[in-house]
Amino acid sequence: MMPKPNTHTVTHDNLLDLVPTGPAWTVDWGEIWSLWPALATLDTCPQDPIHHAEGDVGAHTRLVVEALVADPDWQGLPDVERANLFWAAVLHDVGKPAVTKHEDDGRISSRGHSRVGASIARELLWNAGSPFAWREALCGIIAHHQLPFWLIERPDPGRLAIETSWRCRPDHLCLHAKADALGRICQDQKAILESVSLAALTFQEGDCWEHPFAFANDESRVAFFELEDRDPHYAAHEAFPCTVTVMSGLPGAGKDTWIAKNRTEHPVVSLDAIRDELSVSPTDNQGQVIQGAHERAREHLRAGRDFVWNATNVTRQNRSRVIRLLRDYGARVEIVYLEPGPDQLRRQNRDRPDAVPDAVITHLSKKLEPPQLWEAHEVRLA
């Protein structure tokens, strides 16, 4: 859980020091495997032999990393990018032990391991003090690392390529996918590699290979992600009656302090304040609280007033509900995300007059999904 310290002292500098360098490009597996218990569990996690005749997840992970390190394209990357992809490869299947199942037909499945793995990697790297942008780029690779295998089979691969380019960097994603294909023993390895090559071509043809697709403006991007039939090249008109600041962050992250310093003139729709008014505990049913917040938000929206929506909003699903309401009134939406380090978060929460129980923070941290740039007109890390 993100608020709990790691049992091992791992720092971001430790991780950078373990990235292989030329001319030998040697991987120190002893040091790497000793960093986190989550890696050791990979050696006892089975895989379906049809797709992974090489054996357990640990064996596969080592083969993937070795394939990546041997790739001249990886070796030629800038140091920061090379380190990012290296650790993405080390951690890409770290979610498998949590979801691996023996099916009734004798097969072995690990559905959802990419999403779970991204969450685990986020926790490990948060505790290691890795920079936010570096960490989230890595988690984006893990969350979508299987996509190049099946992108071309989707009904609209061009659109999916554009969407993906805002979630992770496609050239790095395909470089990882190539190593992932080479780091296994299976009969369809050649077909997988061909799919990765076709995915790379799709990204290149969509002009989103090394960078996110360039929309005409922020509204064009937001509308594209909202509407399935939206033309990505359409330049939307931008005229907003108001701007709403949507706060996001775990309890104790400092949202109230940020608002007091940066949005002094704005009215605030605060879920915590409404809970206090209604005498509703954070662990009780929140329906009445949410309804009250929406009613107050609509008053500001109808008046065309800028205001702040203050809640944890740590999952994309929760943010999307709020943003949908704001978009119905044509508002410009900015998300402000606060994420102090583990020690600072605990200290700030303890110092609050209404400190949140550790169990609540732990529950929320399990679900944490920091906002991504495509979710609103503007997303900032404060």
Automatic annotation (TrEMBL):
Superkingdom: Bacteria
One Pfam match: HD
GO molecular function, one term: kinase activity
Domain HD residues, every copy: 79-150
CDD domains assigned: HDc
InterPro entries per record: HD/PDEase_dom, HD_domain, P-loop_NTPase, tRNA_CCA-adding_enzyme
UniProt keyword annotations, A-Z: Kinase, Nucleotide-binding, Transferase
Name assigned to this protein: Predicted kinase
